[in-house]
């Protein structure tokens, strides 16, 4: 071979290598960016321990997974949060995958979710529009991403702001946890650490169970993000003993979307040596499409599935899901109608409407309530049917998977085990919740929890519908104007109590205590006061000495009697013979009265008598004066 031929061969080999590199490049050319936010040091409420730790773990996980940009921010006030979102929106314009992770406080107001910066005060419910950031603002920041827009919220904590903020409208709802969302844009996934309306746990260590599971499964190479969140859900349920269940909302296509690209495929010779996988059957394709529609979880997805598979086992399951969705829509409509009827009845009563109008409004309210209860029962029946069908489907799917595994060759099993994620269990992921114990006990606990929230139950939430629980429901009926059956705790009772957004039963305190918010505190009276029978502090009355009037110089009765009583002279031995009384009376006066002065007592003189004078007489006589004719 001459020199020119050798050069031509080299050029050909270089061209082929370049073409191969270009052909393989798209699998690794995806640009992935992430914004990680963690808020712990809240200034106007108690700080949180774990959010910054969780955000730090997620930032390290994403960097290890090969993300091109990981912007980690912690303890941001509102101004810096707004700047971070604006800068990240510029990064997302050039990215295929954009991810936002947030750990901290969140709140739901009127069905919308908001993330709370560390400098928020939230004194009124309307302050969330000015001081917090809505979830829609986060979605706008990641909207330019081309392939996947992912939001992960570890913000379903018990929010202290909801307990202290003032409500400008009584009808404005402030929920516990975060509200359910339905993304309107395609290729969007929103993951909650706990399902809508419930709260998540921070865990006993430095990180929450949700973040630990995310760091374990999300960076698995080649693992579809939906299956990864399914494994996260199973891990959190196992860690928290079924008390916390993460949920994912959104819609993706049929292709796998991994956060981390799959490893390079084996050489063609090795691939040829491995046994080929069995060809997909129509039943397996229908099963795969049904599971995707079930993950989306709305009517449009089920109708699209039925358009593709109008008959068969999975078509019947899809129709049951549609019946469940219809029952839920009917329940929501009936609840809204009952709420409007109740508002109309209250308005007519407040305006002093005529009795006929009030009676008509009450009849409409009762009819709407009856329709709502019927819709609730229909929804419950549909849910039970769908749950039974889903359990049967899962059992059949498990049998099919087991049969397919048994028929596979030993070499194929070894190859698949080497390529599969080590800690990911093979289990189909659905959005539906797992049963966590007896349904009756769960309903009783839920009713007891709601009765405690509205101030009607003071006991513990133990799942036992005892006499104390029945008394609390009786109090709720009295103050809420309802007629719920107190013998059992039903789903209708739970929904009726949930409709009350504020306290229903008044706070009753014993004698010596007073109402202080939602608790009773002891009454402490000031010094010199005492607590009377009316449960009020009253000042003690001091006894004042009785002053004697200066002008009242009348002697006491004892002194007056002493003035008329003669004093006995001491008996002195004498040789004289005492004179008879008759002779003494003859020598003295005949009135028989005795007059005493400061020295001695003597008979009143003849022709004289004693008279009482208030001012006293001469010689120091005590109020008696000798008056002679």
CA gyration radius, whole angstroms: 47 Å
Strand order of the largest sheet: 2-1-3-7-9-10
The tally of structural domains comes to 4
What's the architecture of the largest domain, going by CATH? 3-Layer(aba) Sandwich
Give the count of helical stretches: 19
What does this structure look like?
The protein contains 19 helices and 18 strands. The protein is α/β, with parallel strands linked by helices. It has four domains: 27-264, 3-Layer(aba) Sandwich (Rossmann fold); 282-409 and 421-434; 439-498, Muramoyl-pentapeptide Carboxypeptidase, domain 1 (Orthogonal Bundle), CATH 1.10.101; 555-561 and 583-629, no CATH class. Strand 13 and strand 14 form a beta hairpin. The termini are far apart. The model is unreliable at 1-10, 12-28, 267-275, 424-436, 572-578 and 580-589 (pLDDT under 50).
Task: Compose a concise summary of this entry.
This protein is of the alpha/beta class and 629 residues long. The chain is built from 19 helices and 18 strands. It is 44% helix and 13% strand.
């Amino acid at each position: 071979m001459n020199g020119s031929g050798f050069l031509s061969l080299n050029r050909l080999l270089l061209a082929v290598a370049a073409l191969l590199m270009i052909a393989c490049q798209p699998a690794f050319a995806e640009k992935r960016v992430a914004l990680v936010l963690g808020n712990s040091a809240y200034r106007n409420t108690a700080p949180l321990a774990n959010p910054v730790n969780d955000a730090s773990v997620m930032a390290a996980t994403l960097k290890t997974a090969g993300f091109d940009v990981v912007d980690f921010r912690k303890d941001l006030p509102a101004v810096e949060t707004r700047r971070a979102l604006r800068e990240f929106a510029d990064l997302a314009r050039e990215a295929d995958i954009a991810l936002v992770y947030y750990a901290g406080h969140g709140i739901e107001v009127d069905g919308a979710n908001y993330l709370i910066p560390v400098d928020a005060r939230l004194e009124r419910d309307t302050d969330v529009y000015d001081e917090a950031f809505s979830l829609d603002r986060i979605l706008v920041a990641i909207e330019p991403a081309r392939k996947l827009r992912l939001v992960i919220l570890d913000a379903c904590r018990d929010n202290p702001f909801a307990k202290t903020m003032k409500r400008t409208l009584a009808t404005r709802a402030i929920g516990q946890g975060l509200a359910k969302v339905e993304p309107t844009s395609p290729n969007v996934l929103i993951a909650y650490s706990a399902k809508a309306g419930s709260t998540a746990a921070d865990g006993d260590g430095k990180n929450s169970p949700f973040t630990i599971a995310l760091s374990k499964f999300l960076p698995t190479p080649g693992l579809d993000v939906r299956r990864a969140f399914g494994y996260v859900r199973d891990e959190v349920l196992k860690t928290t003993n079924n008390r916390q269940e993460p949920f994912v909302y959104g819609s993706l296509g049929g292709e796998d979307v991994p956060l981390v690209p799959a490893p390079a495929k084996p050489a063609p010779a090795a691939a040829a040596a491995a046994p080929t996988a069995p060809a997909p059957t129509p039943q397996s394709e229908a099963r795969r499409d049904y599971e995707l529609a079930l993950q989306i979880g709305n009517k449009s997805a089920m109708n699209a599935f039925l358009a593709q598979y109008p008959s068969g086992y999975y078509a019947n399951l899809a129709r049951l899901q549609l019946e469940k969705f219809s029952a839920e829509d009917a329940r929501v409509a009936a609840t809204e109608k009952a709420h409007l009827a109740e508002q109309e009845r209250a308005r007519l009563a407040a305006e002093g409407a005529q009795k006929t109008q009030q009676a008509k409004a009450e009849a409409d309210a009762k009819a709407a309530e009856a329709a709502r209860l019927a819709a609730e029962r229909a929804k419950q029946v549909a849910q039970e049917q769908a749950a039974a069908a889903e359990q049967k489907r899962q059992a059949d799917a498990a049998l099919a998977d087991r049969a397919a595994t048994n028929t596979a060759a030993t070499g194929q099993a070894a190859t698949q085990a080497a390529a599969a994620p080590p800690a990911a269990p093979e289990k189909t992921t659905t959005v539906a919740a797992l049963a966590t114990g007896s349904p009756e006990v769960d309903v009783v606990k839920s009713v007891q929890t709601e009765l405690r929230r509205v101030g009607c139950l003071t006991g513990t939430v133990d799942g036992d519908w005892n006499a104390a629980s029945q008394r609390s429901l009786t109090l709720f009926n009295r103050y809420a104007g309802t007629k719920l059956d107190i013998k059992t705790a039903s789903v209708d009772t739970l929904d009726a109590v949930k409709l009350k957004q504020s306290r229903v039963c008044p706070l009753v305190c014993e004698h010596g205590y007073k109402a202080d918010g939602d608790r009773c505190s002891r009454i402490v009276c000031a010094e010199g006061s005492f607590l009377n029978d009316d449960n009020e502090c009253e000042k003690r009355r001091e006894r004042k000495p009785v002053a004697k009037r200066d002008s009242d110089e009348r002697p006491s009765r004892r002194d007056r009697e002493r003035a008329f009583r003669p004093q006995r002279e001491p008996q002195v031995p004498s040789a004289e013979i005492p004179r008879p009384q008759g002779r003494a009376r003859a020598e003295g006066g005949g009135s028989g009265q005795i007059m005493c002065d400061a020295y001695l007592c003597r008979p009143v003189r003849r022709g004289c008598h004693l008279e009482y004078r208030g001012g006293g007489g001469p010689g120091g006589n005590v109020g008696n004066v000798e008056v002679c004719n």
